[in-house]
Amino acid sequence: MLDDNGAVRRRDLLSLIGAMAGSAAMYHAMTSLGFASESRYRGPIKLEGDPKGASVLILGAGLAGMTAALELRNAGYRVQVLEYNARAGGRNWTLRGGDSLTELGGFTQTCAFEQGLYLNPGPWRIPYHHRALLDYCKRLGVALEPFIQLNHNAFLHASRAFDGVPQRIRAVRTDFQGQVSELLAKVTKQGALDEAVSREDQEILLQALRSWGALDRNYRYNANLISAEYRGYAEAPGGGLSSAALPSEPVALSDILKSRLWRYLQNFANYNFQTTTTRIRRFRGRPRPIGASARFPCRSSASCRST
Ligand SMILES: Cc1cc2nc3c(=O)[nH]c(=O)nc-3n(C[C@H](O)[C@H](O)[C@H](O)COP(=O)(O)OP(=O)(O)OC[C@H]3O[C@@H](n4cnc5c(N)ncnc54)[C@H](O)[C@@H]3O)c2cc1C
After folding, report:
1. Is the minimum distance from the CB of 297 to ligand 1 under 6 angstroms?
2. Is the CB of 26 under 6 A from ligand 1?
3. Which alpha helices (H) appear in the chain, and where do they start and end?
4. Torsion (CA) 260, 262, 263, 267 in degrees, nearest 10
5. DSSP 296
6. Is the Cβ–Cβ distance between 197 and 203 less than 8 Å?
7. Residue 142: its pLDDT value, please?
8. pLDDT along the chain (307 residues), means of 10
9. Protein residue with its CA nearest to atom 45 in ligand 1
10. Ligand 1 nearest atom to the CA of residue 65, by list position
11. How far, in Å, is the centroid of ligand 1 from the Cα of 58?
């Protein structure tokens, strides 16, 4: 944990933050420390100097090792990459049906996904501001796919809330937003914000709350077709024997508050995730053995071996 000077090592500090407060907090900490901040990359790097026939041995065929191998090879070095695992990519990794994985304890699992389905157990997202990585993907022909980050129809689940019944994200969000908007509209109309917000802005604020919170004309959040438009219907319009839509019943604010599910609503809006939602890194086709893919720099003039 401590280095030779008795200070906590950076990696251990970040691991502790991650373990205690979750990955989002760790990412914030990394950003604050300057390790996850926006890239200042302005274009391909060009290493200077004359290697004079020098050889370089790189340990690890993760992104860092392979990037180093590519650049050093381009600069004229003889490069060899040694990789502990039987595959390149390091933490970048895709599991498909038929793949098998033996964990550190020796437990082996075989992935039973159907054809076409896959899971990236490591990184999924490339933030738009990871400019260097995106540039390498472009230059090396690595296929990228859109990444759907937020599915309003997906569930939020807390085993101690709602008798363990999962709740749709759209319902939790709409009900929370709606009832908070109703409260804020109430105090605005009671004049509680007179000191903080001008009269003119209060008018606009009320309009905004009505729109944002799906409130009715009396600034109330209710089971009606306005809220149903966002949280979902009990009976969707136009379907079944009757074409009349039936609104669904909102969850009470107290239940949402106690469920703590509101903690997860901002997950999807997190800067580091939100701005990353457009791409997912993935190599085209099935991953091939190390050295067999033209996209990995550890092919051709640089060699790459499993150790
Ligand atoms: C679950 C998870 C989710 C993540 N999500 C994202 C994300 O969405 N977006 C993002 O940008 N980043 C994400 N990351 C971070 C990202 O995966 C890493 O920053 C990146 O892969 C690090 O690359 P690397 O080459 O430095 O290290 P690694 O990928 O760890 O590669 C190191 C390689 O070195 C090998 N090795 C180690 N020691 C030796 C040795 N002595 N001899 C030979 N080989 C050795 C290892 O086997 C490995 O292949 C995520 C990470 C994890 C674990």
Report:
1. no
2. no
3. 10-21, 23-32, 63-74, 131-140, 169-189, 199-212, 225-231, 253-259, 271-274
4. 150
5. S
6. no
7. 84
8. 69 72 66 67 89 95 96 95 94 92 92 92 84 90 82 94 96 98 98 96 98 98 97 86 88 96 85 57 42 34 41
9. 60
10. 25
11. 14
Ligand 1 site, residue 125, Cβ cutoff 6 A? yes
pTM: 0.71
Show the domains of the chain with their CATH numbers. Answer: 38-149+276-306 (3.40.50.720), 167-258 (1.20.1440.240)
Q: pLDDT tens for residues 173-213?
A: 999 999 999 999 999 999 999 999 999 999 999 999 999 99
Ligand 1 in reach of 64 Cβ (< 6 A): yes
CA dihedral 209, 212, 214, 215 (to 10 degrees): 0
Question: 3-state class of 281 per DSSP?
Answer: strand
Separation of CA 165 and ligand 1 centre (Å)? 36
pLDDT digits (tens, 9 = 90+) for 89-127: 999 988 999 999 888 899 999 999 999 898 888 888 888
Q: Distance, CA 303 to ligand 1 centroid (Å)? A: 20
